[in-house]
Amino acid sequence: QVYVVFSEELKCWCRALVESVWHQADGYQLRCFLVDYAKHCSVASENIRVLAGAFAKIPPRAKKCRLHCTKPLTLHIDYCENTAKIGPAKRWDAAAIQHFRELLE
């Protein structure tokens, strides 16, 4: 379900999908995907609203997607043998994500 959340970074209300919720000392935090900006953000629970009426029917401008047949790689360093090899990883590292975003721009 799509909700409306207030993004501190963008200083506006945005449509979002809630990905996870966790408890903190001052309340709940939500990890959200902003469907019109293709960004992830953390939002306090008091900054979320139900999306009303016709706004819920507007299609999102951004969609989550994956690169077909592209698997994440990382550099595996063996300090004992003093070697470094590129091998498979479970998820993309921050440097690879940043490089991909720069290529897109």
UniProtKB/TrEMBL annotation:
Query: Is the Nucleotide-binding keyword given for this protein?
Result: yes
Q: Which SUPFAM superfamilies match?
A: Tudor/PWWP/MBT
Please state the Enzyme Commission number of this protein. Answer: 3.6.4.13
Q: Which Pfam families match?
A: TUDOR (PF00567)
The first-level EC class reads: hydrolase
Name a single GO biological process: germ-line stem cell division
Catalyzed reactions per annotation:
ATP + H2O = ADP + phosphate + H(+)
Which Gene3D superfamilies does the UniProt entry name for this protein? 2.30.30.140
Q: A GO molecular function for this record?
A: hydrolase activity
Q: Where is the Tudor domain?
A: 3-68
Database matches in InterPro entries: Tudor
Question: Where are the coiled-coil regions?
Answer: none
Checking PANTHER family in the record gives: ATP-DEPENDENT RNA HELICASE TDRD12-RELATED
Protein's name according to its UniProt entry: RNA helicase
Q: Lineage of this protein's species?
A: Eukaryota, Metazoa, Chordata, Craniata, Vertebrata
Designated gene of the protein:
Tdrd12
